[in-house]
Design brief:
The structure is a single chain. This protein has a domain at about 50-145. About 70% of the residues lie in helices and about 0% in strands. The chain has three helices and no strands. Helix 1 (about 1-15) packs parallel to helix 2 (about 50-115). It is rod-shaped, with a radius of gyration of 46 Å. It starts with a helix and ends with a helix.
Length: about 150
């Protein structure tokens, strides 16, 4: 009976989306009184026939198993989610380290180029421009002096 119940319930537990809470409403102990047909009930309430009582007993047993299965399922699900987040975090850290190393290498290369390159006032273009400007300045100065003496 228990093996059959386990086989019937285990596929449902495997497909379960998540735990559904089972609570006793109203809380308290169960009271079971055997009655014969025609006998008056010792208290007000409901009377279940054998099939209903058996069905409810099976529900209780299934929910007992379901509780254990749902807890196991949730533990496995949480562990898998945690492992996934750890893997994602590790990938992000590796990407950050690669990006940072690449940017640092680019910065070092640019800094080296700035340090190794000629200073702007030591370039050939600057010398040519200064030569032309100086020659023009001397020519205008000489022309101004010649015109000033006349």
């Amino acid at each position: 009976m228990i093996v059959l119940l386990f086989l019937l319930v285990s596929p449902r537990a495997a497909r379960a989306e998540g735990p559904e809470p089972v609570t006793a409403v109203p809380p308290g102990e169960d009271v079971i009184v055997a009655l014969k047909k025609g006998e008056s009930a010792p208290f007000p309430g409901q009377l279940f026939d054998q099939s209903t009582a058996l069905r409810w007993a099976n529900y209780l047993q299934q929910y007992s198993f379901r509780l254990q299965a749902d807890v196991e399922y949730q533990k496995k699900y949480d562990a898998a989610a945690f492992d996934g987040l750890k893997a994602q975090l590790e990938l992000e850290r590796e990407a950050y380290a690669r990006t940072t190393a690449d940017m640092q290498q680019r910065l070092d290369t640019l800094q080296q180029q700035l340090n190794d390159g000629p200073v702007w006032y030591r370039t050939a273009e600057f010398g040519v421009v200064m030569g032309v400007v100086s020659a023009v300045a001397i020519a205008f100065s000489a022309a101004a002096l010649v015109n000033a003496t006349k």
